[in-house]
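[audit] Reproducing an earlier prediction to check determinism. Same input, same settings, fresh worker. If the tokens differ from the archived copy the diff job will pick it up downstream; this log only records the rerun itself.
[audit] input (603 residues):
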Amino acid sequence: MARIPLLQLNEISLTFGGDPVFENLSMIVQPGDRVALVGRNGSGKSTLMKVAGGLIEPDKGEVTAGPGVTVGYMEQDPDLSGYATLGDFASANLDEGELYKVERAGEGLKFDPARPVETASGGERRRAALARLMAEEPELMLLDEPTNHLDIEAIGWLENELKQTRAGFMIISHDRAFLRALTKATMWIDRGVVRRQEKGFGHFEEWRDKVWEDEDSQRHKLNRKIKAEARWAVEGISARRKRNQGRVRALGELRAERAAQIGRQGAAAMALDSGPKSGRKVIEAEGITKVYGEKVILNPFDITVMRGDRIALVGPNGVGKTTLLNMLIGKETPDSGTIKLGTNLEIALFDQARAQLDPDMSLWDSLTGDPDMRVSGKADQVMVRGMPKHVIGYLKEFLFDEAQARAPVRSLSGGERARLLLAKIMAKPSNMLVLDEPTNDLDVETLDLLQDLLGQYDGTVLLVSHDRDFLDRVAVTTIALEGKGKATVYAGGWSDYMAQRDQDDFAESVVKSKQSAARDGSPQASAKSGLSFTEKHRLEVLPQEIARIEAEIAKLEELMSDPELFTREPVKFQKATDALVARHEKLQEAEEEWLVLEEKAGA
């Protein structure tokens, strides 16, 4: 028996006064569908969702929901006008007996339903919109960047809720880990065409590359055919002009076919100039603390940041990641302790709020009005890594077209604002990048390019992000802020941190068990009597130390697995080789020390 679709779009066409966004587009969403909607920034993903959700009327075509099907849409910038509190907005369509659903979603998504709308941040408003959608439980959920402004715990809650729901859903997200965990089909918008594959996002990049490879092959064959037909037209047409007009017309049709092909949008031409080298020691923090009122942000904390380090700060929203970041770069003063910045530092900051962009300024003025980018006497040029460039040409490198140059920043999508801010900071030489939530709203291809640039960057990187995949790809060290002032340094990215944290939790439970046994006077306690206090402590901490060294080795081996690293960056290859040898020696020493102490403890 055929299933009745949740939603059907038939022959949809839409323009906004210029080129068509979609033309004769058709798609179906079936019951239980779990779909990733992917495509480049500006390809029309959010527009398609708004058409599907009934917020935008197409120029022609039909949008049909199944009988009795409710469609819920979570937009990126929800309109909360007319509501006093976030809770009023989130519960507007619920019966009295269903209000508990908003409270439950509020706990999972970490927002306060009693917060007045007028004082709520953009992130809180988005979380309220997401809570409203989850509480209403429509048969089809349309989720536009639901993980933006969520911390990793809240993302985990949402991920678990969506795994358990019976509703169908379509998701736009830059968060690879989130999409891989949830989706079973992929819709790809590419140059106004929507393709569908019955596999989740984890298979998208392989599929995309195969489509593009086939497309390039077809284009190559078409060019060869046109070339051969054009040669015939020049060399042999005069003697057979009347008999071969059909072939001449066919040649014209081939050329028209090639002209009608829409070229793929290239990747942004992003580049980083690491500028002059900083000192070897970039930041040295000793015993730094921070308290706001009764809230402890940071207990005494020490860290030394060396040139070339890639350090990620992770933890729940509000725990103090940005505060610690600002203290480390000298923008904020600790309550106690000392922070010494290294010599010759040139810092480039990508801030979470995009505060460096004035929403009322045009893209043109955002670049030419920057004192660090201004070219004396040239209103149409900007200084880019020491060289003057025409502002339009530079904007095109970041995938903006000429028509957008004079448009206000407020007209840009979230991903376009992120690209404009990247254009500003990448124009200036730097030797330390400070990136506070850089991944929000960026498409997968731009994230890939940013990751590659960070891998090649000679300077130091400090990073705050909730994107687990990006953290794994970039970070070599992770500082985990876990609340109540606790901050712990771990080797590796997000997955390494989680593995080591689990080992730490296990080691802590073993220590508590031994302490309890010692109090009880059990045989286990007497078995440890052969160890001094210092030796007991070493035996307890060595498993964590070994795990950290193993994570460092894994990161170095991953770096050296690149077969072109030696020829491309021989200095970096040699440093990685030396570091790997040193880590293996350190691991062997730690394992031997653990064996000696374990044998002594059991004697």
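[audit] rerun output stored. Observation attached for the diff report: DSSP finds 19 helices and 21 strands in the chain.
[audit] end
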